[in-house]
What we know:
By secondary structure, the chain is mainly alpha-helical. It has a single domain (10-124), classed as Orthogonal Bundle (Retinoid X Receptor), CATH 1.10.565.10. It has helices spanning 2-35, 44-64, 84-92, 96-106, 113-126; strands at residues 67-68, 73-75, 81-83. Strand 2 and strand 3 (81-83) form a beta hairpin.
Amino acid sequence: xxxxxxxxxxxxxxxxxxxxxxxxxxxxxxxxxxxxxxxxxxxxxxxxxxxxxxxxxxxxxxxxxxxxxxxxxxxxxxxxxxxxxxxxxxxxxxxxxxxxxxxxxxxxxxxxxxxxxxxxxxxxxxx
Length: 127
């Protein structure tokens, strides 16, 4: 079925794009962690453990700060904007609704970049 084939290609295309963006974001998270006071004084094993434990939380936090409720979309750092269905098909799957709910709950806080950075640091250290 060509319609189903097209859908699979579209989903794989979204997955590829999301994977590329997530990889870039993970690199930024590692760079961010290295700038946290005391982080690099931890053993490499401890640094890796904290990064592994917190990376998804920080990725979700970062994307949720770029939520547009009027369109129910998330905008990634490169400007790619996806709606709920596209996010689901890009690999979020069953997490999609939870991510959008969390984004909606963050809105009233009107967090700036500094507050997002502090919350990211807390996620990382509490990994």
